[in-house]
């Protein structure tokens, strides 16, 4: 049995707050409505991840954006626990899209903090190598034909690489430090 | 009415490890008069890249859409994830002129341009809207009466409502109706619309395993003999990972997970071999005895 710990409220220092952060966020596709979140908690109540994680809380993410707690948001690994199921998006009475906000924050974590879970770096590497996020072995391609399936269409890899380059993604991926696993408790 | 014709977008994970879904889908669609054309070339839909860079996801998806526009045919996906990114990108770029200009700026570098001339549909909507329930019903040669199953449509074929807008995400009926056409009973269970957790399994296994275990519990408790899916990722979560979930929770589910076209295919009179049922991790042996 673990003893109940005394509750210590987290202290937020004024210098941690970036008052412009919420405006910056509201300009991003998917995060436009973050300022109208009125903290009803519907998203957290209906979020499947929040049910099983002790600290992943979508409502808190919206509040932290409003307060401008940028670094706390971007450096917190909980950011990577959202499964993008869009339940919060469909249920929010204010039309706030938490899943979109989380995506914007993840993009910022990659760009500003150079952080990315390892699995995505691997998927991206496969994609840049083969056009698919999984490297499909030759034996699989052979088996397709044996099973009567048409050959898998080839990817125009040159164009895929160009897309990584012109969107700035190739450069971002070179710089990132990877996060192996994320705890949920 | 003219015969439906689609470009089949199989994505990455189906050719990688779930040919059973593609094989069974092609079989039933061909018999139902849906003509499938191969993509001249394609790449990952972009879905998993959204976490890295939103523009990257949009441009990768748009590249596939441009390829389909050139052929002049709508896209059909078998995967909820592919449907999510391709459909959402298609709708956003059609509506948002500014964003379209930005993405077209990237596409210009590879000699492409998004015009917004095609649609994207998931298999279950092609079946319900284009083929129609009447035609499917008539194609059922061996009704699966006596079989009791449950469905897991998965979130991305339903949500977000503003981009999908076909079925009711809170009380989805498309897959249920499609199941009932086979003669099988489709049972309701608790939290049917709950996500399986698969998208985060690469960063954390605990949560997805608990989510999937809870779903398997709920499905079992109503007495379902199988769970029917329409997405390779949902399928992997419940079929391929079922032994691991059983070990983690010291449970025994032994619940077969069938791709919807496998169930429909059985009802249409295809043999289990033709539908690649032998490729399932959880063997549907008992279930096949039930419908003999
Ligand atoms: S449901 Fe919407 S308004 Fe309510 S807390 Fe969540 S984001 Fe804010
Ligand atoms: S999209 Fe993310 S935050 Fe929203 S309900 Fe699903 S898991 Fe929770
Ligand atoms: S959703 Fe997944 S399987 Fe489908 S194309 Fe995208 S990355 Fe590949
Ligand atoms: S249930 Fe899981 S795999 Fe299926 S669509 Fe939802 S997130 Fe994707």
Structure commentary:
The complex is a heterodimer of chains A (185) and B (292). With 185 residues, chain A is mainly alpha-helical. Chain A folds into 2 domains: 14-113, Orthogonal Bundle (Fumarate Reductase Iron-sulfur Protein, Chain B, domain 2); 114-185, no CATH class. Chain A is 50% helix and 3% strand. Chain A has helices spanning 21-26, 42-46, 48-52, 58-67, 70-75, 87-91, 98-113, 118-130, 138-146, 157-166, 169-175; strands at residues 115-117, 177-179. A two-stranded parallel sheet of chain A has the order 1-2. The longest helix of chain A is centred in the middle third of the chain and has 16 residues, at 98-113. The radius of gyration of chain A is 20 Å and the shape is elongated. Chain A starts with 20 loop residues before the first helix and ends in a 6-residue tail after the last strand. The mean pLDDT of chain A is 94. Chain B is α/β, with parallel strands linked by helices. Chain B has 2 domains: 5-122, Glutathione S-transferase Yfyf (Class Pi), Chain A, domain 2 (Up-down Bundle), CATH 1.20.1050.140; 133-290, Rossmann fold. Chain B is built from 14 helices and 8 strands. In chain B, the strands form 2 sheets. Chain B has a 4-stranded parallel β-sheet, sandwiched between helices. In chain B, strands 6-5-7-8 form a 4-stranded parallel β-sheet, with helices on both faces. In chain B, helix 4 (80-95) crosses helix 5 (97-108). The longest helix of chain B is centred in the first third of the chain and has 18 residues, at 54-71. Chains A and B meet through helix 3, helix 6, helix 7, helix 8 and helix 9 of A and helix 1, helix 2, helix 3 and helix 10 of B. The complex binds iron/sulfur cluster (4 copies). Residues 11-13, 44-45, 47-48, 79, 81-82 of chain B line the site of one iron/sulfur cluster.
């Amino acid at each position: 049995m673990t003893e109940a710990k005394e509750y210590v409220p987290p202290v937020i220092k004024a210098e941690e707050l970036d008052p412009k952060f919420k405006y910056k966020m509201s300009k991003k596709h998917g995060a436009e409505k973050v300022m109208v979140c009125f903290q009803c908690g519907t998203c957290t109540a209906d979020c499947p991840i929040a049910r099983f994680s002790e600290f992943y809380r979508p409502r808190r993410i919206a509040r932290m954006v409003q307060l401008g707690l940028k670094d706390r948001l971007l450096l917190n690994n909980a950011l990577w626990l959202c499964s993008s199921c869009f339940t919060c998006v469909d249920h929010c009475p204010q039309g706030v899209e938490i899943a979109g906000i989380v995506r914007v924050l993840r993009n910022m974590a990659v760009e500003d903090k150079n952080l990315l879970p390892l699995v995505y770096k691997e998927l991206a590497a496969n994609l840049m190598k083969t056009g698919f996020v999984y490297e499909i072995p030759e034996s699989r391609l052979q088996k397709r034909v044996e099973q009567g399936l048409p050959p898998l269409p080839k990817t125009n890899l040159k164009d895929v690489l160009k897309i990584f380059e012109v969107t700035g993604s190739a450069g971002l991926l070179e710089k990132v430090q990877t996060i192996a696993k994320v705890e949920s408790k | 009415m003219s015969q439906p014709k689609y470009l089949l977008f199989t994505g990455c994970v189906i050719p990688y490890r779930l040919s059973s879904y593609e094989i069974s889908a092609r079989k039933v669609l061909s018999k139902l008069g849906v003509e499938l054309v191969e993509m001249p070339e394609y790449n990952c839909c972009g879905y998993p890249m959204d976490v890295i860079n939103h523009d990257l996801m949009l441009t990768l998806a748009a590249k596939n859409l441009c390829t389909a526009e050139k052929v002049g045919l709508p896209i059909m996906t078998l995967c909820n994830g592919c449907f999510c990114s391709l459909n959402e990108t298609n709708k956003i770029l059609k509506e948002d002129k500014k964003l379209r200009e930005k993405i077209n700026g990237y596409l210009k570098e590879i000699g492409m341009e998004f015009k917004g001339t095609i649609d994207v549909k998931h298999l279950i909507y092609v079946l319900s809207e284009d083929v129609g329930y009447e035609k499917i019903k008539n194609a059922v040669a061996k009704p699966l009466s006596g079989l009791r199953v449950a469905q897991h449509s998965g979130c991305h074929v339903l949500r977000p409502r503003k981009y999908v807008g076909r079925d009711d995400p809170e009380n989805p009926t498309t897959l249920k109706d499609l199941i009932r056409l086979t003669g099988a009973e489709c049972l309701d269970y608790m939290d049917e619309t709950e996500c399986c957790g698969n998208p985060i399994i690469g960063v954390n296994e605990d949560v997805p395993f608990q989510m999937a275990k809870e779903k398997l519990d709920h499905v079992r408790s109503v007495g379902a003999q199988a769970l029917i899916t329409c997405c390779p990722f949902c399928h992997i979560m419940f079929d391929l990972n079922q032994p691991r979930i059983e070990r983690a929770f010291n449970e025994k589910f032994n619940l077969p997970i069938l791709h919807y076209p496998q169930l429909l295919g059985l009802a249409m009179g295809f043999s289990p071999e033709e539908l690649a049922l032998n490729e399932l991790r959880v063997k549907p042996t008992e279930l096949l005895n039930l419908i003999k």
